[in-house]
Design brief:
Shape: globular
Strand content: under 5%
Radius of gyration: 21 Å
Strand order of the largest sheet: 1-2
Keywords: Membrane, Transmembrane, Transmembrane helix
Structural class: mainly alpha
Mean pLDDT: 80
Low-confidence stretches: none
Helix content: 55-70%
Order of helices and strands: EEHHHHHHH
Length: 211
C-alpha cells in the first residue's frame, strides 16, 4: 500500500501512535460523559458499565466491517496489477478508521470494566478480584483468536478445497475480508446474547439500583 503523503514517506508506526492516542482520548471522553451521567441520573456505576460494554461491542463490529471493506478494496486493486511486485495504488491511510474503532473499543471497554466492578462507596476485595478475572477473560479471548483463525482456515478448505482457503501464503491470494465479516457476525451475536441476558434476568434491576 502507498505510504506517501505528497513527497513524504510516512512510516507505518504512525498507526500505533494513532491507536494509542485514540484509545486514551476516547477512553477519557467516555469517562467524562459517564461521570456526568452518574451525577445527573439515578443509576449505579454498574449500569453505566453495562452500557459501556454495549458501546464497546458496537465499536468492535464497526472495526471488523471497516477492515473487511478495506481488504475488499485492496483485493480489487490487486486484481488490476500488471506485475506482481507493483505497488498497489491505494493509500495506507484507508486503515485509519479501523484503528480508530479498535482503539475506541479497547478504551471504552477498559473504562466500563472499571465502572462495573468498582464500588465507589465501599470497595471490597471481591470487586478487585472480579475485575482482574474479567481482564483475564478478555486476554484469553484475544489469545483464542488464533484458534478461530485455524478453524476458519480448516472450514474454508473443507468447503472449497485448499486453494479456496481464506488464508494463503500470499496475502494477495487470501480472503481476509471474509474472515473479518465472520468476526463481525460473531461479535453481533455476542451483543445480542449480552442484551438477552440483561433484559431477561434480574440483573437488569440489580445494576440500575444505586450503589
Amino acid at each position: 500500500m502507498d505510504n506517501s503523503v505528497g513527497h513524504l514517506k510516512v512510516h507505518p508506526v504512525v498507526f500505533q501512535l494513532w491507536y494509542d492516542l485514540s484509545e486514551e482520548l476516547i477512553g477519557e471522553l467516555y469517562w467524562k460523559i459517564m461521570q456526568k451521567l452518574l451525577k445527573r441520573n439515578n443509576v449505579s456505576s454498574k449500569y453505566v458499565g453495562c452500557v459501556g460494554l454495549v458501546v464497546s461491542m458496537i465499536f468492535s463490529i464497526l472495526c471488523c466491517i471497516a477492515a473487511a471493506n478495506v481488504d475488499r478494496r485492496r483485493l480489487n486493486k490487486v486484481s488490476d496489477l500488471t506485475v506482481d511486485d507493483d505497488l498497489i495504488s491505494m493509500s495506507m491511510f484507508w486503515l485509519v478508521p479501523q484503528y480508530f474503532f479498535l482503539a475506541s473499543f479497547d478504551g471504552i471497554s477498559d473504562k466500563s470494566i472499571d465502572l462495573f466492578f468498582k464500588n465507589h462507596e465501599d470497595p471490597t476485595s471481591s470487586d478487585r478480584i472480579m475485575r482482574v478475572f474479567c481482564l483475564l477473560i478478555v486476554g484469553f479471548g484475544k489469545i483464542s483468536s488464533n484458534l478461530l483463525v485455524f478453524v476458519a482456515q480448516k472450514v474454508s478448505e473443507m468447503v472449497g478445497g485448499t486453494r479456496s482457503s481464506w488464508f494463503q501464503e500470499d496475502i494477495n491470494q487470501s480472503r481476509l475480508d471474509k474472515y473479518y465479516w465472520v468476526l463481525a457476525a460473531l461479535t453481533l451475536a455476542n451483543l445480542v446474547y449480552y442484551n438477552i441476558l440483561y433484559y431477561c434476568t434480574s440483573f437488569r434491576a440489580e445494576v440500575r439500583a444505586l450503589d
